Amino acid sequence: MIVKITTEEIRKYLDIDTPEFPKYVAPLINLANQYAQGTRPRVVGQMSELIQEFDGRTLSEWENWYLNKNPDSIKNATEKIVQKLQELKDAMNIIDRETVEQWVRDLVIVKTFAGLRFQEAILKKGAEIKETNYRLSGPNEESMGIDGYISDIPVSIKPYTYKAKSALPEYIGVKIIYYTKVDDGIDVDYEEILQ
Question: For 166, phi and psi rounded to 5 degrees?
Answer without folding.
Answer: -85, -40
